[in-house]
Design brief:
The chain is about 35% helix and about 25% strand. The chain has 9 helices and 10 strands. The protein is globular and about 50 Å long. This is Peptide/nickel transport system ATP-binding protein.
Length: about 250
């Protein structure tokens, strides 16, 4: 059984624009699947549907074989801890009125009673926050600061720490490095790769940057105008059988 499975997922905006057109793919445990495509192709809408922040018109979204798309918010709550996200703008993801330690503790306070953690151990709040800060290679003293006192790269590491704090089944990474400088981008991708292996996480890595997707992913999906037009294993990126649109994306990063 796949960890995540999408079957014929379609969505049309109120203005009649078809933004998702029959999306089919699966994601296995401990795997990173990359989703690449230009801005406006429907990637972020798909992420919102998987996270149950937007509805779908047709199809199915299954997590460990359980349908998510037809549940109300009360019935979704047990599943929410198992799908976490890291978005492209860490400033918007963090409450400016909360210190970093409070933001890191929030998922546990909401869902902790449902969590059986293998790698992090909640004995008290201070030790739990320390473990999370260490996991994302941040000094523990930053936990006492507010978001505006951290750099962009540090804030994104905090959002990563919060996302992994309950060791979710799936982390949806939606353009997680696009707001960072080149050095921070590289360091963040390296960190994410290490955490996936160390914590046995699964990722859906969404980006317009094919080079980043190729670095992170075992399987790659190429999206254009709401449809997946190409799919392949990482080592098949430069195959002559690639879709013409994939070849266009490759040419941008050579």
């Amino acid at each position: 059984m796949s960890l995540l499975e999408l079957k014929n997922v379609s969505k049309t905006y109120d203005n009649g624009e078809a933004v998702l057109k029959g999306i089919n793919f699966s994601l296995e445990k401990k795997e990173c699947v990359g989703l690449v495509g230009e801005s406006g192709c429907g990637k972020s809408t798909l992420a919102r549907c998987i996270l149950q922040l937007a509805s779908i018109d047709e199809g199915e979204i299954l997590l460990n074989g359980t349908a998510l798309h037809n549940k109300n918010e009360r019935k979704l709550k047990p599943y929410r801890r198992n799908i976490q996200t890291v978005m492209q703008n860490p400033t918007a993801s963090l409450n400016p009125k909360l210190k970093i330690r409070e933001s890191l503790l929030d998922p546990y306070l909401q869902y902790g009673s449902q969590a059986v953690l293998k790698h992090f151990h909640y004995t008290n709040e201070t030790k739990f926050v320390k473990q999370l800060m260490e996991a994302v290679e941040l000094p523990e003293e930053l936990a006492g600061r507010y978001p505006h006192e951290l750099s962009g790269g540090q804030k994104q590491r905090v959002t990563i720490a919060r996302a992994i704090s309950l060791e979710p089944a799936l982390v949806v990474l939606d353009e997680p490095t696009s707001s960072l400088d080149i050095l921070s981008q590289s360091a963040t991708l390296k960190l994410l790769n290490g955490l996936r292996q160390q914590l046995e996480l699964s990722y859906l890595f969404i980006s317009h940057d094919l080079s980043a997707v190729n670095m992170m992913s075992q399987k790659i999906l190429v999206m254009k105008e709401g449809s997946i037009v190409d799919r392949f294993e990482q080592e098949e990126l430069f195959s002559e059988s690639r879709h013409d649109y994939t070849k266009e994306l490759i040419s941008l990063y050579q």
